[in-house]
Amino acid sequence: MFWLLPVLALIVAGAGAAATPSIPDWARWTLAGVALIGASCLAIAFLLGPAARRLAGERAVLTAAERREMTANERVEAVNAARHTLIQAATGLVVIGGVVFTAQGLWYTAQTLDTARQTQFTDRYTKAVDQLGSSKLDIRLGGVYALERVARDSPRDHQNVYDVLTAFIREHDPTRTAKLPTRPATDIQAALTAVGRRKVHMDVGAINLMEIRMSGARLAGADLSDGDLSKAILADADLLGANLTEATLTGTNLTNADLTKANLTEAKLTDANLTKANLTDANLTYTNLTKATLTGAALTDANLTNTGLFEANLTETILTDAKLTGASLLDADLSGAILDGADLTSAGLNEADLGGADLSDANLSLAGLGGTDLRGANLRGANLFSTDLTNANLTNANLIGANLHGTDLSGANLTNANLIGARLTDANLSEVTGMTEQDIRRQAIVDSKTRF
């Protein structure tokens, strides 16, 4: 048994060396193979020798008497039967070992291929970035599309690619002293398009397009969700159907921009300029439009549920059939705005200016209009059920056929208001000015619960 210790030492040394990360991978795999072969040989020798004899019934060295009781043929047959059984077991072990070794080899091959692929991606990435710095337009365009392809093929490079493209857009912004072009340069537009169609779910961080000046940019259907476009100039931009969910657009210029059917859910548009922008059928749920300018903007059928419009400028804005349920319009300027058929249920309009606004057939039930300026407003057929109109100014307002059941009009100014057919049942008209009780009874529908 003198050979046993060197074999064991060889196996242990090979296994230990294979676990050393400092040596080349090919050497580690070779040493692991040698150790595995040595261990297999040792196991087979043990199975064919001592193990076989023990399985055959030889628990100890046979005595002379035991040898005489057992014929030579019987002993040989017992040992051979045990050896046959153990050879089958050894064969199974070898097969299992081979499978494991093959699996490890395949894994190593896959790792090698992955490393080669990543090296290739790195080379492609580096070359594409170099192309962006070219003085030739076609080469820069090639660089943009090459980077986009790298992002698709290599998920781990996704964020780096779009960080480079957004930096390219920002750094190639028109000179601040120069007049803005009507449309972005061809290569910049290509980069914007690539950013807009990226796989957003792979983003690690928000895209940075702060302060870019891209009037007339074509971004229809672009996904800019969670992006930072604060103080950007996107006047006349095409953002039809764009996804701007949770985007930051603070102070952004979107004058005359087309945002038809755009998704601006929870976007931040504080101080943004949306003068004459088209937001028809847009989704602005929970959007922050504090102090935003929407003069002359079109918001027909837009969804502004729970939107914040504190001190916003909505002068002459078109909000026909818009949904403003729960919206906050405190101190907002809605003078001359068109809100016919709009749903303003539970909206906060306290101290807002609605002078000359068209609110015909609008739903203002449960809305807060305390102290609101409604001079000359058209509220014909409007639903003002249980609305708060305390101290509101309704001078020259048209309330023909309006539903004011349960409405609080205490302290309101009704000078020259038209209340023909208006329903004032259970309404509070205490301390109103501009009209006497007789004038009101002559025009409006009242009941015993109407309080004067």
Describe it.
- There is one protein chain.
- The chain is mainly alpha-helical and about 450 residues long.
- It has a domain of about 120 residues.
- The chain is elongated and about 140 Å long.
- The N and C termini lie far apart (about 120 Å).
Shape: elongated
Low-confidence stretches: none
How does the major sheet shape up?
A: none
Output the number of helix runs.
8
Number of strands: 0
Helix/strand-derived category reads mainly alpha
How helix-rich are the residues, as a percent range?
25-40%
Distance between the termini: 118 Å
Q: What Rg, in angstroms, do the CA atoms define?
A: 41 Å
Order of helical and strand elements: HHHHHHHH
Percent range for β-strand residues: under 5%
Mean pLDDT: 86
Which features characterize this protein?
452 residues; mainly alpha
Chart the SSEs and their pairings.
Layout: H1 4-18, H2 25-55, H3 64-69, H4 72-132, H5 137-153, H6 158-171, H7 186-196, H8 437-443
Helix pairs in contact: 1-2, 2-4, 4-5, 5-6, 5-7, 6-7
Compact description:
With 452 residues, this protein is an all-alpha fold. The protein has helices spanning 4-18, 25-55, 64-69, 72-132, 137-153, 158-171, 186-196, 437-443. It contains eight helices and no strands.
